[in-house]
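Quick one, tokens below:
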């Protein structure tokens, strides 16, 4: 991030295309740059010696001194030449305000490609082109062509669209909203959303929330890593157009037909812990309420205020999936003592025309303390008996004493404005309409619910051996060698079976007599299906016959099947007829699928299956890899999940078994980047048994040459099993060393809880009185692209036990990393610490890091000795903290690494 950090904190800025001509981009941008008196500004214009009283230069290569940031505002055709000169001058970063690139057609796209290549050649970072620049109000940095720039605040706004970004800024300025940063990304030939989120996470603590206007994601894997890291601490809210369904493309599966681009984006946002909103106003509303720290524990609300507004609020709550809280008898009794005898004695609590400030105070105080109430929506219309300001002040006072959210609806004209200002002054969300207030509350609820579920500790799944892949790879090689992209049903089911997903395995017959012999061995009833490399949906051409009960039925069904297919698909090549045992008395039919999305790679789909799949369109999308909690979340977002819990007299499905199958299916998709689409439809559930009745897999050739990852088809890096190893802890204890999983949280807790206070303090640099879940999730929910945490595990009394853990935390641009290690007191001094450091250094070299560092308390002499023996240099940071650094520009010295192993 070094060069981006310099770009956004420049000491010297050159403006190429600077001008004095009023109304030009060059003039407006130069005036904005000159607002900062602390920075040196170099106008570049070969035709002028001075611009706005400042010396101008003919070319950036003749500017005296180093230029941190260059801003280009020249015609599109000249930009590549200007960028080349910036590279020659050693500029760290470039902002290209110029337009006229890909939006103009192929010629403009070629200009962009040329600019991108120049930037890579010189190691320059590039913002734009076709952007309006960036603004950091708190540092008075205005690298923009906009005339009106925002006031300071704590919201960072990142916009892909230049025009819409400037319009939203104007809207926010009218609403009195300030910003910590505004960035217009434009065409994103280099710097994209992932880069910006990483910058804000690492270098801008002033930013409390990030708002994004997104049209496309850029590099999805980088975005997911950056967003998942940032969103664990601070909210990200996204407005992305494209909710309407695009014209359907030619797809070969039910999954491909349903998992459209916009649905995939929504799934990716949920997986990252991002809140997606639908309107511009929601962006800022959500930023305000999510930063309040008062997120609701549930969706049960109490409603207080005007009867008319309360009815409207109730309708909106139900519509958006909220619930009216059932007030406790105690609360109802207390309300009876402060309300008129004719009050409605229920939630909503109607405060009618003569309501007083005291009634607002009493009803709100009673409702907010009720354990059945997660939050309160209070509304007001002008009353002679209670002024807007007095009621607002009373609500504000109560809100300051509770951790539950209170959201206000203040409706009226000028009489209510002072009351609304009271709310705004104290950070209490206030809206003009009930619908806005309810929307805000449900955004808060959904945001917290998804975050909690994302970082819920998943249950351990039964241990399984790695599936045998040689046979599956052979199937892929043979199919691709023959130019086939569609595996037949038998081949597709071999993949499922290898990953622990039960199937009904077909046998292929060439004639009705052979089909009858196969059916006799299987036992009737059976199903027959046409086998053809040209038919993706066999049902559509009459290529499936169900419920065949005898040899006589087989002959007629076989003939009918062939007749149907030849009638509806006369050009299809027929390879035979598949015979399968028929599962009878099916309780539920589920769809399980996957497809490659153009932005996020492979995505998973779970929903209602069967012949009406596309008509019902009940499904949810998730990003692999999945664990048990994520599989449950995927299921819970469908109507099928509620159905599986018992429907119209049918038994409850074995949900744990279904979860295991979904996780196994995810593992299958993770392991094979060749899979373009896969459909399991239906996955049938009958009397507790589960089996895939039909399956198809579409494949493609994947060239892994030069790939930066073994999983280029995934937006989230999967579990790095390659780092699993075994080791003997002297004198004779076998240790498994492996990357950590979210499922390891209980073991991590037990290890820390049973360690001495001194060991905890020397690892975490402060005393630890408690070890909460929100602390542990940072150590067990790992982004394996940027953080590898290795745990040491032994077996004691037939139970696995964690005895140590070590991590390498890599920076966003993958140039350096920070090491940390912890060994339980009972196992210190036996070589585990050096073993951890050795493993982490191997990983650092594999990741091509330039250097690693670690911070150690001065009193932690054992850890300090380990780092010294590995060749780390020491530097004192504070009185009690020493930093150890090691440059990774050569092979690890085996002599030094192996010495003093028992420190």
């Amino acid at each position: 991030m070094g060069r981006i950090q310099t770009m956004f904190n420049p000491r010297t800025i050159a403006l190429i295309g600077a001008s004095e001509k009023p109304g030009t981009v060059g003039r407006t941008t130069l005036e904005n740059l000159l607002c900062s008196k602390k920075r040196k500004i170099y106008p570049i214009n070969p035709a002028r010696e001075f611009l706005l009283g400042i010396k101008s230069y003919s070319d950036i290569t003749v500017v005296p001194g180093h230029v941190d940031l260059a801003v280009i505002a020249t015609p599109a055709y000249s930009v590549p030449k200007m960028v080349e000169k910036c590279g020659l001058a050693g500029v760290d970063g470039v902002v290209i305000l110029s337009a006229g690139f890909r939006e103009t057609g192929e010629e403009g796209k070629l200009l962009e490609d040329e600019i991108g290549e120049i930037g890579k050649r010189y190691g320059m970072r590039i913002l734009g082109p076709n952007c309006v620049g960036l603004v950091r109000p708190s540092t008075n940095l205005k690298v923009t062509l906009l005339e009106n720039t925002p006031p300071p605040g704590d919201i960072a706004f990142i916009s892909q669209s230049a025009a819409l970004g400037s319009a939203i800024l104007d809207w926010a300025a009218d609403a009195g909203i300030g910003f910590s940063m505004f960035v217009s990304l434009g065409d994103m030939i280099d710097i994209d959303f992932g880069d910006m989120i990483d910058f804000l996470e690492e270098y801008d603590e002033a930013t409390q929330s990030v708002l994004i206007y997104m049209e496309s994601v850029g590099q999805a894997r980088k975005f997911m890593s950056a967003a998942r890291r940032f969103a664990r601490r601070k909210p990200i809210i996204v407005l992305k157009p494209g909710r309407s369904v695009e014209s359907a493309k030619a797809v070969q599966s039910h999954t491909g037909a349903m998992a459209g681009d916009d649905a995939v984006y929504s799934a990716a946002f949920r997986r990252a812990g991002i809140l997606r909103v639908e309107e511009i106003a929601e962006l800022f509303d959500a930023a305000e309420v999510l930063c309040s720290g008062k997120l609701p524990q549930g969706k049960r609300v109490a409603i207080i205020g005007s009867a008319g507004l309360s009815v409207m609020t109730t309708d909106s709550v139900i519509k958006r999936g909220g619930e009216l809280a059932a007030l406790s008898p105690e609360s109802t009794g207390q309300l009876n003592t402060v309300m008129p005898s004719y009050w409605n004695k229920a939630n909503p609590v109607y405060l009618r025309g003569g309501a007083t400030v005291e009634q607002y105070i009493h009803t709100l105080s009673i409702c907010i303390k009720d354990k059945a109430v997660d939050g309160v929506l209070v509304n007001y219309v002008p009353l002679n008996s209670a002024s807007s300001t007095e009621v607002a002040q009373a609500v504000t006072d109560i809100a300051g004493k509770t951790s539950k959210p209170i959201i206000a609806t203040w409706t009226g004209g000028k009489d209510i404005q002072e009351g609304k200002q009271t709310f705004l002054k104290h950070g209490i969300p206030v809206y003009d309409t009930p619908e806005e207030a309810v929307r805000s509350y449900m955004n808060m609820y959904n945001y917290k619910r998804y975050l909690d579920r994302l970082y819920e500790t998943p249950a351990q799944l039964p241990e399984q051996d790695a599936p045998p892949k040689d046979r599956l790879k052979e199937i892929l090689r043979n199919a691709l060698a023959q130019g086939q992209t569609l595996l037949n049903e038998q081949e597709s089911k071999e993949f499922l079976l290898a990953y622990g997903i039960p199937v009904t395995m077909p046998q292929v017959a060439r004639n009705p007599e052979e089909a009858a012999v196969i059916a006799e061995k299987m036992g009737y009833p059976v199903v027959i299906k046409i086998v053809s490399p040209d038919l993706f949906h066999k049902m559509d051409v009459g290529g499936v016959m169900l419920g065949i009960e005898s040899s006589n039925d087989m002959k007629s069904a076989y003939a009918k099947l062939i007749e149907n297919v030849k009638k509806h698909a006369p050009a299809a090549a027929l390879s035979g007829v598949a015979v399968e045992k028929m599962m009878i008395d099916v309780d539920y039919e589920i769809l399980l699928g996957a497809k490659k999305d153009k932005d996020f790679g492979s995505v998973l789909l779970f929903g209602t299956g069967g012949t009406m799949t596309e008509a019902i369109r009940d499904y949810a999308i998730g990003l692999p890899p999945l664990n048990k909690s994520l599989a449950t979340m995927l299921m819970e977002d469908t109507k099928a999940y509620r159905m599986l819990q018992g429907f119209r007299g049918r038994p409850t499905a074995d949900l744990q078994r279904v979860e295991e199958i979904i996780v196994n299916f995810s593992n299958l998709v993770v392991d094979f980047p060749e899979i373009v689409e896969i459909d399991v439809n239906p996955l049938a559930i009958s009397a507790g048994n589960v089996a895939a009745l039909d399956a198809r897999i579409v494949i493609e050739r994947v060239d892994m040459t030069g790939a930066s990852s073994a999983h280029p088809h995934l937006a989230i890096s999967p579990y790095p099993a390659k780092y699993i190893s075994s080791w003997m802890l002297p004198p004779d204890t076998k240790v498994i060393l492996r990357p950590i999983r979210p499922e390891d949280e209980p073991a991590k807790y037990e290890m820390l809880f049973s360690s001495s206070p001194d060991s905890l303090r020397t690892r975490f640099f402060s005393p630890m009185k408690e070890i909460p879940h929100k602390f542990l999730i940072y150590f067990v929910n790992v982004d394996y692209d940027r953080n590898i945490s290795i745990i040491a595990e032994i077996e004691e009394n037939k139970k696995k036990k964690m005895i140590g853990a070590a991590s390498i935390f890599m920076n966003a641009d993958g140039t350096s990393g920070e090491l940390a290690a912890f060994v339980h007191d009972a196992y210190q001094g036996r070589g585990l610490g050096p073993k951890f450091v050795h493993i982490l250094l191997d990983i650092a070299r594999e990741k091509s890091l330039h250097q690693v560092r670690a911070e150690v308390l001065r009193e932690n002499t054992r850890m300090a000795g380990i780092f010294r023996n590995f060749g780390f240099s020491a530097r004192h940071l504070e009185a009690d903290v020493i930093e150890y650094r090691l440059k990774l520009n050569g092979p690890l010295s085996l002599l030094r690494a192996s010495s003093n192993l028992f420190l």
